[in-house]
Amino acid sequence: MTDVSGPADAPSPVPVETDEHGRHEREPLHRRASARLAVALLCAILGFAGVIQVRRTAAGDTLASARPADLVQILDGLQRREDDLNSEISALQATLARLRSSGVSSAEALAEAGRQAQALGILTGTISAAGTGVRIVIDDPGQRVPPEVLLDAVEELRNAGAEAYQVGSVRIGVDSSFGGAGGAITVDGVALRVPYTILAIGDPPTLAAALAIPGGVLDTVHRANGTMSTTQLQQLTISALRPERTPQYARPAGG
Predict the structure, then answer these.
(1) What is the rounded distance in angstroms from the CA atom of residue 37 to the CA atom of residue 222?
(2) Angle between helices 147-159 and 204-211 in degrees, nearest 10
(3) Measured in whole angstroms, how far is the alpha carbon of residue 83 from the centre of its chain?
(4) d(CA 49, CA 175)
(5) What is the pLDDT of residues 222-255, one digit of tens each?
(6) What is the pLDDT of residues 12-31, one digit of tens each?
(7) How far apart are CA 150 and CA 176, in angstroms?
(8) ω into residue 68 within 30 of 0, thus cis?
């Protein structure tokens, strides 16, 4: 016998609506899906608008909703912060000015120290020197010119304002000494060869005149049957150097 009622778990029939004339009308599936999608979209828009409103309230509307006492406190804090920044700016500007001033002074001090070191180096013979000057050549064919004549020549040149000297290959310093005898003169222990050559930096006419004064070096050389010539030079270089010495006893006063 066959059951004609159908299976028990069969799906229920689709609801059927009736119109005003009693005729049955079925709702389309695509209309219901569109309605559900519109509702979901509306909910998403409302949620997004709510989030934006919360953020605006937290960020920009805080001052609007703050109490007068809170606003005064906030203003005081901003004023203190401004004062702190101004003080920091002033301190940095003062530091910058001090550093600039210190740098310029140090540069000037170094430049002055360099100039003084060069001047002392020329006087002590530890650095080469160049400038106008004279070249003096004393010939002694009879070997009768004593070392005192060379010492007198150096002294006359110094008195005439010479600033650097060289005799033979030896740079003259404050502790230079002449020794030996005619034909075998030494300076600082170094033997000189005839003719003797003296170089001096200074004013050429003044130096030349100092050696030619009556009764001076020139007359002494002539009495010893020697000859002496003086050449004035506009450019002369003295390259011989003296070794640097460290004072054993003397120290800078007040240092």
Answers:
(1) 132
(2) 140
(3) 35
(4) 100
(5) 999 999 999 999 999 999 999 887 878 888 776 4
(6) 554 545 555 555 555 555 56
(7) 12
(8) no
